[in-house]
Request: fold
Amino acid sequence: MDASLEKIADPTLAEMGKNLKEAMKMLEDSQRRTEEENGKKLISGDIPGPLQGRIQNIGEQGHMALLGHSLGAYISTLDKEKLRKLTTRILSDTTLWLCRIFRYENGCAYFHEEEREGLAKICRLAIHSRYEDFVVDGFNVLYNKKPVIYLSAAARPGLGQYLCNQLGLPFPCLCRVPCNTMFGSQHQMDVAFLEKMIKDDIERGRLPLLLVANAGTAAVGHTDKIGRLKELCEQYGIWLHVEGVNLATLALGYVSSSVLAATKCDSMTMTPGPWLGLPAVPAVTLYKHDDPALTLVAGLTSNKPADKLRALPLWLSLQYLGLDGIVERIKHACQLSQRLQESLKKVNYIKILVEDELSSPVVVFRFFQELPDSDPVLKAVPVPTMTPSAVGRERHSCDALNRWLGEQLKQLVPASGLTVMDLEAEGTCVRFSPLMTAAVLGTRGEDVDQLVACIESKLPVLSSTLQLREEFKQEVEATAGLLYVDDPNWPGIGVVRYEHANDDKSSLKSDPEGEKIHAGLLKKLNELESDLTFKIGPEYKSMKSCLYVGMASEDMDVAELVETIAATAREIEENSRLLENMTEVVRKGIQEAQVELQKANEERLLEEGVLRQIPVVGSVLNWFSPVQALQKGRTFNLTAGSLESTEPIYVYKAQGAGVTPPPTPSGSRTKQRLPGQKPFKRSLRGSDALSETSSASHIEDLEKVERLSGGPEQITLEASSTEGHPGAPSPQHASQSEAFQKGAPHPEDDHPQVEGAESLR
Reply:
């Protein structure tokens, strides 16, 4: 690495090369050290303090790129002549290496931090090349003949607005070229329509200036027909600029013809930092132009040494990796994409959107509902006979499931670097782009296999959730007190709301009483410890509260679930009303008790007389003739809600019988679960966990326990009811009944039950 520096005959540069060599040796030594406890690699030069342990492991090549920034600051302290020689050498070497690696002959390079900055400079160069008087007349030249910049409809968002802001052009100077609709990929530029638009602009007196093509679109990685676009640009004198992630494959031995055509374009923008896992490395725009004066005016070249030093981190990293290291990293990323693509082809219900792009390093897939005709679980979406609203609802439902799938996969396999995105035509999809993430995250083939395994494990839940959605909707609509809420953006079996007695159905504003009921309902359902996930929503408080039910498996008993929700919500509402009524009854009872106690006190004064109230006389009178007065008070029966006298308590020394409290409300149907069976699960006979014999024997045991627990009480009631009946049994039958009563123990008492037989005698 220091050999190129020593070629410059200067003692200062030789010394700098020596110092750089020592720094590299220290870097390699620090990388070889291992921790004594777990044996993992240490990150050399880890920053102490709050950032310690929070910086990702960027590897040796990453440290080399970071070293380039500090080395650039050191180089900038040299005198002007030495600095000019060194920066010119670094810039020319880096440009030559990049042009050779990516097959772009006789090109120049512009290094920039902002990825879109290179395209803006290229547009300035195209304007200066096509408008000779632009330097003198400026905007007047553009006003007389407006330039047109053509962008694909699949271009990255915000690119056209950025160009107009940087160039000072109005938005009508941008022309959005649609993609194919009938033939070819729906993410490729429609070449025939583009040619028609160019002819129309020429007829209107406008100047077609520049065309931005994609070698790997930002969304799905599709490549435009660059060869055909190049011919069209040469015909009308348009500058062709190419960008995209597929340009990285130019470094490989085999390149597809569509990507290889990018080597003949006028300019291209590449991002070697993410491709090679190099942090803080600038993007590069390669271009071909013969006039150095125009490139200087456009800002593509500069005489400032600081601008030339931008290439230093990339210069160090390319020398450290070498050609074999660069090709190996790009090849590894492409192999990961091909591995995932081949694996997903074998997985049912997964659709790959880049199946025709065999050389694309980007894989985009989604879960879809279309199934073979023999499987009635799901149906194809969209269907021609479906209404537009139904198609849109199914589209949103499928998008919600794909969004859930993408988030689950990102958590389970973080090394995959997945991205969830929304496409205009296909909907929500999951993207795997290892060229942009594998070098940084260290993605391996084992991670791809784990990703496929996770996808296969989530598919049964997705399919069963789609199957149970309609059943859940029907059960909710058939249950009184429940309202089905259509929310296709929720990735679950459905959304339900309980309508209480005071619910205003015509209003959608927040309801405090409903929020209280749904909060209690959520707590009760979570206490059941089922496999379902429940959530209260929506998140914005301007709408009424609802209960969101999550993903479900195929053995979910929807009828039991809906009935439990309705019964639990009804119980919470009734308990809330009982508490409110009890509060009012207690308040009125206290007031009534105070009035009655005051009346009783007045009556006692009248009975005892006035003399007994005089302090001294009353004591003497009470000693000669004591008053036999009962202690009168009031007791409040919470169950009956009535005020009663305490006289029976003092006379008979016993509390009142009161009224039997009402039973706790519950569901109309109680389901007995087998051992180990969770709530809302269907009992599957013949399954691996429970066999038919064990299930039947357990149900018989439950029935026997019920008969034994209720037997003695039923026999006692029957015996007592036959005492006064005209068709009463004979004394022999009574004695038999008496013997049975003596031998049958009561479940709540260990003594024999003989009272029933004694009553019969």
Observations:
- The first strand starts at residue 108 and ends at 112.
- The first helix runs from residue 3 to 6.
- The two ends are 117 Å apart (CA to CA).
